[in-house]
Amino acid sequence: MPVSASVRRAVALAALGLTTLMGFVAAGCRDSSSAPKPSVVATPVDPATAGTVRLEVRYSGPVPTPKVLDMSVAAQCAAIHTQPVYDQSFVVRDGRLVNAVVWIKQGLEHWVFAPPSTPVRIDQKGCIFEPHVVAAMVNQPIEFTNSDPEPHNVHGKPRVVSAFNFMLSRAGAKRMLAFDKPEVAIPVGCDIHPWMRAYVAVVSNPYVAVTASEGFVTLSNVPPGEYVIGVWHEKLGTKEQVVKLEPRGSAALQVTY
Fold this sequence. Notes:
The protein contains 2 helices and 19 strands. By secondary structure, it is mainly beta. β13 and β14 form a beta hairpin. The N and C termini lie far apart (49 Å). About 4% of the residues have low confidence.
């Protein structure tokens, strides 16, 4: 006899276990809804000498055929979408790469930056993570939300901080985390719906962004200096670009995969 979708969901939920339902492993990360915020005395950036770095991420190889996500095992998820939903792990538009993380990787070791208090938000909506890639600073709150009536969990599998796994069982459920170490990037998934994947990039300074459809980012209010700019993509790995930013300078860079 075929197993119904509701039975499959019940089995999947049971397999997550009580630990998944009630909490997560917190070494290397913290629940920012309850933990005290660290006090940081930031090194001031002089706006009179700060500049900007604009970096374009291009892709010169054969563009892969977009893959349609198969939600057929969860009819309630498939029913949400009237059009095909495409995998976001390798998106190229007009020769530019989407969902690449760009950040200042080296050159700011002696600077101290206060983490933003505004959370980075990542939603579980339509049985996918939105956005697919987010970037945050160390100790900046990251808010995970479930906007679906369908239960989801959030299972992170980092290399540097410890793994985390918690349940968002209903629409409107939220959980706030923060990470005390940098890592580019932490893979996040939903064990109930295995096609649901996302990445969280955590860096030690505020100069980080993710390329959107235009394929470039602009890092503003950067102090003058010599830097290594890192670029990370989930399928193509990490590249670096060296830049020297003069006082009140503007640098335009390009990285090609």
